[in-house]
Amino acid sequence: MATEQQEQPKIEQLRIHNADELEHVAGREREDLQGWIPALASEEETRVALEKAFDYRGDVTLTLKDGREIQGYIFDRRTGATLADSMVRVIPSTERTKLSISYAEIAALHFSGRDTAAGKSFEAWVKKYWEKKARGEKNIQIEPEKLD
Prior knowledge:
By secondary structure, the protein is an alpha+beta fold. It is 26% helix and 20% strand. The protein has a domain at 43-110: SH3 type barrels (Roll), CATH 2.30.30.720. The protein has a 5-stranded antiparallel sheet with strand order 4-3-2-1-5.
């Protein structure tokens, strides 16, 4: 019982009584990858670049070692012990099929599409909210942008 009484003030301190007092904790920083063409000179560089491509919210262009180019959205990846055992899964922008491509088949990667998540962080939303509130606007709503 003494332990519960000792912990009670700590719980009370965590309660927020006014939403304006809420501190904002920054999320993970997003890199601006749009237009980037990473070097795929080593196995590590290939793995890092394809992991970033998986997190990217736009289309990428993969150039395969046989010369084919595939533009699309990477929606899954499976990493194995070697590049040949690892693969990305892509939805090509020109069709609604799903392709599995081995990391070992990829000669080049280009972050070619627009990053649809760029500028749409919680921080950006809060900034717009406070700007509108400072101008004295009422019934503030932040409307989502159209995705082209």
